[in-house]
Amino acid sequence: MNETLKLLKNRRSYRDFDENYVLPQADLQAILDAARQAPSWMNGQFYSIIVLQDEDLRKQLVEWNPGNPHMLKSSAFLIFVADLYRTDRVSTAKETAYQIEDTVEPLLIATTDAALALENAVIAVESLGLGSVVVGSIRKHGQEICQLLNLPEKTMPLFGLSIGKPTVEMRVKPRLPEAAVVHFESYRPYVYDLIEQYDQTMEDFGEAREKKRWSQKFADYFAAEPTMVTDQLLKMQRFLK
């Protein structure tokens, strides 16, 4: 197995970082360069990356989201933003219409581009012998983050990435059985036993953060009344009418 495949197969999330470790500027630049080289639809690059090293800004993020103290304790925190403002400026300059509010397609494109850039950053971090964790819960405070970081209309914070030197070793988390995820030629039905099998696998894995079985966690999540926070943010930022 080559080194790239080893990195990919052994990637795991870290939440405990050495607070005294200073990320070299050259390493940060390498991570950003790798992120920016990710695939992008039509080479549109519909995302922006906000690099947060300022302590006060990151303290504010933790005040809003106390379950993720690593946003402050890591060496750097990146926020990946869906960015349709850049091409809005292009349309203004070209004096053409900019019709993005009547369909979710532009949002899907921007979200996908940002996610691909994020994954490139994650693997670049691993290749440097460092660790990271993705933070999707920043969307719960998207409106506040837009104001804090002066994000213009047609941009939206999607997820963050804490980067640093891990202080606690983490095990590689088991994934769903391949038969429940990978299909050849067409989508193939699979027995529900595979889900129950994964429930047991994760219970045996014994991650302290997990208080419920995998299936119960997502049954409860999707049964809960939607908060509509993201929908409100999308309208506020003029992604949708």
UniProtKB/TrEMBL annotation:
Lineage top rank: taxon: Bacteria
Transmembrane region(s): none
Molecular-function annotations in GO: oxidoreductase activity
Nitroreductase domain segment(s): 8-164
Entry keyword annotation includes Transmembrane: no
Keywords linked to the UniProt accession: Flavoprotein, FMN, NADP, Oxidoreductase
Keyword rRNA-binding: no
InterPro entries hit by this protein: Flavin_OxRdtase_Frp, Nitroreductase, Nitroreductase-like
Pfam family, one: Nitroreductase
Family: Belongs to the flavin oxidoreductase frp family.
UniProt name for this protein: NADPH-dependent oxidoreductase
Organism per entry: Enterococcus termitis
